[in-house]
Amino acid sequence: MSKPLHRVVFVAVPPVMAHDLSMAQAVLSDAGPAGAGRSAYELRVTTPDPGLVPTVMGPDLVIGDGLEHVALADTVFVVGGGARPDVDERVYAVLREASAAGRRVVASCTGVFVLARAGLLDGRRATTHWHLLDQLARDFPRITVERDALYVVDEPVLTSAGAAAVVELCLHLIRSDHGAAAAAVAGSLAVASPARPADQPQPSAPLPGSGAERSLAHTRRWAQSRLNVPIGLGDLAAHANVSERTLTRRFHAETGLSPLQWLLHQRIDLARQLLETTDLTMDGIAHRSGLGSPDSLRRHFVTRLGVTPSAYRTRWRPGSAGSPS
Fold first, then answer.
1. Which helix (H) or strand (E) holds 133?
2. Which pLDDT value is given to residue 30?
3. Nearest to 181 by CA among 83, 45, 315, 55
């Protein structure tokens, strides 16, 4: 018997961030367990007064469903509203009801302010678009505002910046629900960058002169194809044909991470995918991912994910082979 679809109900609060809504829909609609051949999510868009709904820019959206559908959601995803929203009280009511029922509640960009005004972020960590961080901290002192984050997970509430960060947030949801392999497929279909950690800083402005420099994307792809072999800072700099100092500066500007931090994140993500999709031993996974040894694999998993590799495999690949870790 197939697993019931996870119901994601979007709450579109005028004026709607149409880009954030469409990106989230696109990523989640392509998501599902490896080999399923269909999305694992049922998506529905609602609004207080169905019909034509204004957007921040561009034409109005036609939304046909009302807020009564929120009661059926597994995840409620708030989009829009503005930084000083004039929000229908019905929106606050359904969000509080969803939270009280233990539903996962998500918001992106200015939707974070809707959650804040509903009181759902009091005592929690949260983020929003970088140019609104000061306002969020000033208007809601009971929220711990995370300034260096693409998205923040404070279960069961998740918040993110807008634009590309919405993609990262949705890939995190897929990774949490269906594993790293499913998230990698969805990310590839969305032509998204390789998996990035939640605490990667938001780029707030381009570095002076950075537009004239060649992107390091080619070097990152080169490194990703060689994760099973030792790669040092000098190797990356040599491939990019720049000094180690320049490499580090540009790497941080493009990814928010140092080169070696980025490499470690890629190795752990590959190890997660191998644990989910293969019966390789822990020694084999440590070698293929470039993490060295089963002890090193275990140490990084416990530090980064809070679980051992064997426990991670048991969750995502029950009954699989492989030596214990």
1. helix 133-139
2. 77
3. 315
Q: How many CB atoms lie within 10 A of CB 90?
A: 14
Predicted local confidence at residue 128, as pLDDT: 94
Residue pair 78/111 in contact (Cβ under 8 Å)? The answer is: yes
pLDDT at residue 2, rounded to an integer: 58
**What CATH number is given for 6-189 in this structure?**
3.40.50.880
Concatenating the DSSP letter of every residue in 52-121 gives EE-BSSSSPEEE-B-GGGGGG-SEEEEEE--SS----HHHHHHHHHHHHTT-EEEEETTHHHHHHHTTTT
Could you tell me how many residues make up the chain? 325
Helix (H) or strand (E) holding 289: helix 282-289
Per-block mean pLDDT, blocks of 10 residues, the chain (325 long): 82 92 90 63 96 90 96 96 86 97 96 96 94 94 92 95 87 90 81 58 49 72 91 93 92 83 91 90 94 94 90 79 49
For the chain, the domains span 6-189, 208-325
Q: What CA–CA distance (Å, rounded) separates 296 from 99?
A: 39
CB 91 within 8 A of CB 48: yes
Cβ(165)–Cβ(126) under 8 Å?
no
Pick the CATH number of 208-325 from 1.20.1260.10, 3.40.50.2000, 3.65.10.10, 1.10.10.60: 1.10.10.60
In terms of pTM, does the model score above 0.90?
Answer: no
Distance between CA atoms of residues 218 and 216, nearest Å: 5
- In this prediction, residue 115 carries a pLDDT of 97
Token pair belonging to 250: 């540009």
